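tool_log.txt
---
The assistant was asked to compare two proteins side by side. It first ran the structure predictor on the initial sequence, then on the second. Raw inputs and outputs are pasted verbatim so the downstream comparison step can read them without reformatting.
(1)
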Amino acid sequence: MTAKGSARTTKESPPSAGSRSEGSERLLETAERLFAERGIDAVSMREIAREAGQRNNSALHYHFGTKEALVRAVLQLGMREVDILRNDYVSRLLAGQRQGEVRALVEALVWPLASKLMTRKGNTYNRFLAAVQLHPDIELSAPAADDIDRGFRRVYEFLGPALPHVPESLLRQRYLSAINFLFFSLADFERVSARRGRQNRGFDMRRAIENLIDMLAGALAAPVSTQVQQLLGEVRAPLEKSPTA
């Protein structure tokens, strides 16, 4: 389960990890960087090809067919890597019997996306995700067809028992909102990391990420207010009165 969602994607599948050539890898990396820096619509296939060292954009069309398919390929490549890390994190939580800890589950959401911010500069995937999320015609959930969001779904499955006071309909809304907030926050951290200058010297990336985890855990676990409980009651009342309910 991801947040919102594929650039009216075509049905052709992007090249698999095993079949990608060095040239297509360079095209994917270049596309991710340019989309992250300038937005999806502001970048043409020709610009991507030129930045990747191609004389024309025929290589892009050969490997990916359309711009929509290229966006989907970049999404899938990054999500596949993140999903492996997230599933490993969840498996470690299970081994340590920590799957009932809300903050630990949020760590499993955050760190697979945030870890590269701690190890190297030049990251662009979080900003790419934010650009995709802002695009009106792109569904982040579309790549889930290849079962590369299993980690997201495992975290959500454990959150329910960990937060018994939050009704399922509210938990789903909170979870999707948390994912959106996660994408945009990490994109902002990535922008700060990419900047050079004295104003960034006091920015503590580790502290920022841990504080983000605290905020997301607090939002997910927040008490259900009287106002929201009343609105839930208004929704349930007609169902309880219905003879077919």
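(2)
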Amino acid sequence: MVVTEGASDLPSNWGRWGEDDELGTLNLITDGARARAAAEVRSGRAVSLALPIQPAPIISGPFAPATTEGSPVQQLMVHTGPAAHATVDVMVVTNHHPRSTHLDALSHQSIDGRVYPGRLLGDSVSPAGVTHASTTAFAAGVVTRGVLLNLAADGPLPAGHAVTARDLGARRSRCSTRRGWRSGGRRPPSGWSATRPRRWWAGRPG
């Protein structure tokens, strides 16, 4: 995707952490922020934000999913017969699929032929892979205090709804907690994945 329209009006962190940075605002999650997050743990309950995936068997192909209803994961089982000591598989994953939960690399989108934090797209991404701003930079994981703002508490957002700062502020005002915003993660569910319309990207809130 190439972003150009209105890009100059958007807030930018390009150059904020230097020309070689690959973390972006994850730089705000310092050791101190992680320690504060760990200190707030009470129950230890794990809550996944991932969408469930049912792999599709590779009968022929593999092929990229033709529709948003298709599984983003194609699986080929590899074994050596019924008496095998172990079984293994080969998977083909379409990461950028509306039913595939994933983290976008900072090189995923470009503006005027450049990717974060201002490098030429051709110098960062090629058919051979990504040499700058890939998700490899997130290999240590993302651990911080999370703030879940449920924008769909009153029902799924309508198609084409543009989530604005006013939406986030209104939902935040209904929360009982206010601390940790600078170094915490925010994830605003829209209720869109619960309905999964066939034309996912046409009118998706965001």
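---
observation on (2): The two ends are 16 Å apart (CA to CA). Residues 31-39 form the longest helix (9 residues).
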